[in-house]
Amino acid sequence: MTVQELPGAVAYRPTPPPAWKPRIDPTPLLPDPEPYRVLGTDAAASVAPELLLKLYAQLVRGRRYNTQATALTKQGRLAVYPSSTGQEACEVAAALALEERDWLFPSYRDTLAAVARGLDPVAALTLLRGDWHTGYDPREHRIAPLCTPLATQLPHAVGLAHAARLKGDDVVALAMVGDGGTSEGDFHEALNFAAVWRAPVVFLVQNNGFAISVPLAKQTAAPSLAHKAVGYGMPGRLVDGNDAPAVHQVLTEAVSRARRGEGPTLIEAITYRIDAHTNADDATRYRVASEIEAWREHDPIRLLEQELTGRGLLDDDTKQAATDAAEAMAADLRQRMNADPVLDPMDLFAHVYAERSSQLQEQADQLRAELDAEGEER
């Protein structure tokens, strides 16, 4: 029998102490009920033609990059490739929203964002080829290593952004993650630290519907992933992830907000993964073809072409120029990826620790001895 069940007992209704009050008003932090859009709305008229054409050229190039990288896996030149076909608007907008001094923290699916930021396409694929730890110097390009463990790049982004602010550096970090990554503890820890520290960081969640084969409804019961922002004290934004100028605008505003010292933002971009999770995945086991075709009608390139054509900004010559540039990139990528790389096995021990441990040195010495013995046998 509980206290409440005793005869004559007064119901126990605990109340917070008198000093309790909300730390901040949650209302401004809540996302809009519908994803923000630009294309097909009155807002499209205010987008500069130069930006629309730049986005279009990058989308066409990005689509060709995805198809070429996927083909390289079938030819054995890549071990695995997580395609971002259908998500190119998020990838391109993320790269273009940053200043040169800012940092990008990509996941394993965000090679296109790194390429759109200026990274050599071959360098972006080096990790997925299995040749090198990263394939590029993160400090030189201000692009963190492609992160294959889910969401572990998010605390790194917060740490870098917080450190930059403490040093007085005008730097913003943009961290990209998929909807599956929001189920990881690193996601929640990163958002909490970022909000408490008011770190200049932007979190972009590409909600493409599936964490491999697990649909979003089996991961969370939240109204949207953007709603999770209010629990940490930061604004949440919901945007159509296939609307390139909309994603660019929302990201640019969030980056500017972070640069002004107003803290982090969580952005959920609603998009769709047209291809399988990777070339090793059979997506037909968990989704139907009609679902994919419905999203093809909302393709980011198609949406932008409609806007550009309607405004008289896209003619056959402009389309051909974008296609030619994309084909030239693909041809160069094919040629260089088809060349067998010259690898040094001793590179396995490079960039592991700033000061090599005794155990690692012992392993390095052992490998060196084996390589020397093989050389003598030849």
Topology, pairings included?
Layout lengths: L48 H26 L13 H9 L6 E3 L5 H6 L4 H9 L8 H4 L11 H15 L5 E6 L6 H13 L3 E7 L2 E2 L2 E2 L20 E5 L3 H16 L5 E6 L18 H8 L3 H11 L5 H22 L20 H20 L1
Parallel strand pairs: 1-2, 2-3, 3-7, 6-7
Antiparallel strand pairs: 4-5
Pfam families: E1_dh
Keywords: Oxidoreductase, Pyruvate, Thiamine pyrophosphate
InterPro entries: Alpha-ketoacid_DH_E1_comp, DH_E1, PdhA/BkdA, THDP-binding
CATH class of the largest domain: Alpha Beta
Residue fraction in strands: 5-15%
Average pLDDT: 93
Shape: globular
CATH homologous superfamily of the largest domain, by name?
A: Thiamin diphosphate (ThDP)-binding fold, Pyr/PP domains
Task: Compute the number of helices.
Answer: 12
Number of domains: 2
What would you report as the Rg, rounded to the nearest angstrom?
A: 24 Å
Alpha-beta content class:
alpha/beta
- Uncertain runs with pLDDT below 50, 5 residues or more? none
Number of strands: 7
